[in-house]
Amino acid sequence: MSRMLIADDQDGIRTMLAQVFTNMGVDVDTAQDGISAWEFLEREQYDLVLLDMNMPRMFGHEVLRRMREKPLDTPVMIMTAFGEEAVIEEVRRLGITAQFEKPFDIYGMIEKVKEVLKI
């Protein structure tokens, strides 16, 4: 079974995504902020991380930077409500699998997740 971490500070988005991917047979953990996401990543292994860029307590790009420094080469898909170019360039340099602008196309995201997780 594939494992995924979903990190987003918006309860509705986090809950909806967790339900969609759980229904697809993915084992899902969720984090409501960057610190919680990092704590999950320090103790668990994931096949994919879905990471919001703008979260409290630690921004998504800082979580990604820490992952790559560790190094954790887990595929990461980012979600962002704003396209701040400097941040987007940084996460691309650090290595992301996909980028989704909020509001995102859930069907496009599902297809990309299926591709990455091979389901």
Automatic annotation (TrEMBL):
Signal sequence bounds: none
Coiled-coil blocks: none
| Annotated PROSITE patterns | RESPONSE_REGULATORY
Q: What SMART domains does this protein map onto? A: REC
Entry-annotated residues carrying 4-aspartylphosphate? D52
The UniProt record lists the Response regulatory domain at: 3-117
Q: Which GO terms describe its biological process?
A: phosphorelay signal transduction system
Q: Does the keyword Phosphoprotein apply?
A: yes
User: Keywords assigned by UniProt?
Assistant: Phosphoprotein
In Swiss-Prot or TrEMBL terms, this protein is called Response regulator receiver protein
Upper classification of the source organism reads:
Bacteria, Bacillati, Bacillota, Bacilli, Bacillales
